Amino acid sequence: MGGISTWDWPGFLESLGHFGVDLSLDRMQVLLQRLGQPQAGIPAIHVAGTNGKGSVCAWVSHVLWAAGYRVGRYTSPHLVNWRERIWLSGEYISPGDWSQVLAQVRDCLQTYAPGEASPTQFEVITAAAWLYFCQQQVDVAVMEVGLGGRLDATNAGIEPVVTAITSIGWDHWQRLGNSLPQIAFEKAGILKPGIPTVCAPQPPEVMAVIQARAEQMGSPLRVVEPLQWSGPQAVRWRDQVLILPLSGEVQLTNAAVALAVLETLQERGWQIPEAAVARGFAATRWPGRLQRVQVGSRRLLLDGAHNLPAAQALRRYLDEHQPGPLTWYMGILTTKDVKGILATLLRPGDRFFALPIFGHTGTHPEELAHLAQILQPHLRSVQALPDLAALQAQLQQPSDPGEPPAVICGSLYLLGQVMQACLGWDLAC
């Protein structure tokens, strides 16, 4: 594997992009087997759900790290840098290690026979994460499901000590099923025989599916209740106050899921002092979720809000903390509930700017702007921006006195592009 540090791994990943998403465990099982089963023997915490998966993974991984464990974390998608997906005890994977583990997977693929089913891009990166965690001898791997659960690449060969399901809502119905029970069935596919499961509150039809799966697997099921605020960004847990740096009411449920996961580990003999829970919670960061930033004189709120449940959560947050007209910069993938997201978020008197999402099937800005005007005819202004340079030019202008705060949302891919192009951020540095 000579020249690992300089080989064209971006080109390698791009060459796999045309395989898209193809939910199946067969290719991943073959790939892991040929790589020597790097995931074998690594205790894992497996997290599925529609929204909140990343936040739960962030809470849990930071606490376990604070408790002295060597913690690997695998999440998706990334915002700015591919290396954000693989995290080890407070640090993203280094450029050299990232290049090396991808090269190992690439070399493995070169042994495939002509016509043999090639792994997808996500499967290759998941395998690279397992290789890295194996080589780094992690004590535990916190693994976020990419899509669904039952047939997701993270579900191949995994050995969880606890599984978790966050809030389930209407998203990815094109692949997971066109009803909430069907979507829940796919996500509940991460449950394993005898392995405890933590679950967020769910609609009755969703909970029925999860309970049936838990009974079938003999998996002890714990359904959490959302925490309650005891002060600004603070909740009470046992006899102490925990600081929640992540904003929004949804984090009361996500934090409850994370705490229940940690309590389950404690019950199974894991050494997680309460002081480590407090330190880990206070240190948790998860960019792009109700994140406030200042660009010159402009105040911005960044939030993915990439599906209807997330848009509803964002709207509730804004109604409480930022009532009144807003300026929206929005891009939404064509595979999402575009009308539902717009109708949920927009209000009379708002300004709306539609943005493209480069490299993904984003709704065309002109079409998005037109749809916004139809769904909310009392917008103060509507405009389609051709590119991020136009957004950057707007953000660099001084804001007028009394100008409404701006929200950039609609897609995590869009947020990553804005962070990189307009804010100059590289989160993995």
The helix-and-strand class reads alpha/beta
* Straight-line distance between termini: 25 Å
In percent terms, what proportion of residues is strand? 15-25%
Q: For the largest beta sheet, what order do the strands appear in spatially?
A: 4-3-2-5-1-6-7-8
Shape: globular
Helix content: 25-40%
Largest sheet: 8 strands, mixed
Instruction: Compute the number of strand runs.
Output: 17
User: What Rg is obtained from the alpha carbons, in whole angstroms?
Assistant: 22 Å
- Quaternary status of these chains? single chain
Uncertain regions: pLDDT < 50 for 5+ in a row?
none
- Total helices: the number is 15
User: What's the overall average pLDDT, rounded?
Assistant: 92
Describe the structure.
It is built from 15 helices and 17 strands. With 429 residues, the protein is of the alpha/beta class. The strands form three sheets. It has an eight-stranded mixed sheet with strand order 4-3-2-5-1-6-7-8, with helices on both faces. A six-stranded mixed sheet has the order 12-13-17-14-15-16. Strand 10 and strand 11 (240-243) form a beta hairpin. It is globular. The mean pLDDT is 92.
Task: Name a few traits of the molecule.
alpha/beta; 429 residues; six-stranded mixed β-sheet; eight-stranded mixed β-sheet
